[in-house]
Amino acid sequence: MGISPSKQVSENFRNSADFNSACDSVYEDCLDLTHHPLSSSVSDELSSASDRLHQYLVSLHFPLIEKWVPTPPTLSQVD
After folding, report:
1. Which of 2, 5, 19, 43 has the most CB atoms around its CB within 10 Å?
2. What is the pTM of this model?
C-alpha cells in the first residue's frame, strides 16, 4: 500500500529547500516587525505574511500552489 496523497504533499514541502527558505524568509520578516513599534494589528501582519509567502511560492512555480491555492488567503481565512 502506498503513501497517502496528503502525506506525499507534506513530504514534498518538507523536503523542499525552496519551500523551507520561503517560510524562513517570511518568518524572519515577521520577527523583524516585532522589534518595531506596532503600526498595524497582528491580524494585518499575519495577512501580510501570508500574502508574502504566497507570492514567494507562486514565483517559484510550485505546481501544487498554482493549482490549489491560486490566490492568497483572505484576511478572514488568516484570522
Report:
1. 19
2. 0.74
